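Lecture notes, continued. The same structure-token format from the folding unit now serves as the input rather than the output. Read the line below as a description of shape only.
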């Protein structure tokens, strides 16, 4: 049951051509959409602000801006996808300053694993996905301070790695470091 109050402004526009003989060709269209969520409350969590800007230029759909600031997390995302050659680019970052508070906010969803792990501390995450048909690369990094999971505490921890997919083959590399 998702409850709350969202205060938002939405704006969108589109333009293009319609050819009665050829039908609807989205390559002849462009569109833009913007949304701003102002001070709101979602699932008893204060959302300070969120901005979303997306566009279609007849060839590529892009998420130019996605920024979220709340009492539980800050996140940014941008990217683009071109359907004609399956080209994809996504960049994302997130900061979770209080995992214990975040896990309590997830209580209504009854996620047993989160309850068992009882996470504490803070985490910063970043990831990038790039590539096109049959060749994608994912690079990710995570860092934490005073991380605690299932009663085990780490002063700091760092994890980075990448996964590459090329012609149905997957390769991966992972680096990790932690201070107990």
């Amino acid at each position: 049951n998702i409850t709350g109050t969202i205060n938002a402004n939405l704006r969108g526009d589109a333009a293009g051509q319609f050819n009665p003989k050829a039908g609807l060709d989205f390559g002849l269209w462009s569109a833009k959409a913007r949304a701003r969520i102002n001070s709101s409350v979602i699932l008893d969590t204060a959302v300070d602000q969120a901005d979303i800007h997306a566009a279609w230029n007849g060839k590529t759909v892009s998420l130019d801006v996605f920024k979220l600031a709340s009492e539980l997390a800050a996140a940014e995302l941008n990217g683009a996808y071109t359907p004609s050659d399956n080209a994809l680019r996504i960049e994302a970052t997130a900061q979770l300053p209080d995992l214990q508070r975040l896990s309590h906010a997830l209580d209504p969803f009854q996620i047993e694993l989160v309850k068992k792990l009882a996470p504490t501390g803070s985490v910063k995450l970043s990831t990038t996905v790039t590539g096109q048909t049959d060749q994608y690369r994912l690079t990710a990094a995570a860092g934490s301070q005073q991380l605690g999971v299932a009663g085990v505490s780490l002063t700091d921890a760092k994890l980075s790695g990448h996964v590459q997919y090329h012609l149905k083959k997957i390769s991966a590399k992972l680096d990790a470091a932690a201070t107990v």
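Point for the exam: Residues 34 and 53 are 5 Å apart (CA to CA).
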